[in-house]
Write a structure and sequence with these properties.
With 266 residues, this protein is of the alpha+beta class. It has helices spanning 18-29, 52-62, 74-78, 103-111, 117-123, 147-154, 162-175, 188-196, 212-221; strands at residues 8-12, 39-42, 68-72, 84-88, 95-98, 142-146, 180-187, 207-210, 227-234, 243-248, 255-263. α1 links the parallel β1 and β2 (39-42). α6 runs antiparallel to α7 (162-175). The radius of gyration is 19 Å and the shape is globular.
Length: 266
Amino acid sequence: MTFPDVDIPLLRLDYSNEQAWNDVLHTALGEESERTDPLTIVDDPAFDGIDIDELLARLNEDDPGYRFLVIADTRTLTETDHPFTLVTATDPPHRLPLAAHTVSDVVANLWISNLDIEDYLTAADPDGVYRATPPQRTEPQERTIEVEKIVDAMGDGPWPGTLEAFRVGLLEYRARAGFRVFAILVDARSVYTNKSQRPLSDYLKYWDVYGRDSYEDFFATHSKEGQVLAFRFSLMSGDPDNHWSAILDPSTLRVLAAERWIKRST
């Protein structure tokens, strides 16, 4: 078996019932299941029948560089709630069973670092499965945005401080064929609360963070409830987890704040 070079794989380990697989995939990803960013469905019979422990052992040998992955096995096709298993690439790894209807939102929030795996582990039910009530949506919560549109919204610059460095990074990302980014529509107050609960000092042992002040300044002056588009893209070199994260005005795609995360050498 070969692990694909993708951002987040959704690995299918059970090929016994094609109809059940299609049904549970629809539950997990919705009616627009053909658009799975940042997930990539790995539908390869070479993975058929292996269990999660064996899969993780082979994953450790190959080390494809995933931040986390999602697994669909026999439980996914047969049990109530059709739980997928999300596994983090940490030492030791965290395993989180996800009711099928939560998969898309959990992946999106972890991908843009809006929430951490610990948030979901603590919110799981007593049996360990995360079963958040599906949100009632009035508009799509996830979007794929053309990078060119963000660049156009920023104009030629220069911008002050962090945002100018972000603009240069975004142009570099576009130059290496980064034509789209995956974004999620989030409540600005929720982002502020989440970040406030995790002081920057908690991260500095492991990360160099540039631009946190732009986030704090934005949220400090954001006096009314509202929504923002949050997204991230990887840097050109260094650790694969090195990235820019940013928030946009959903209507104009104007960049409101950005911060760069570079993992420290250990």
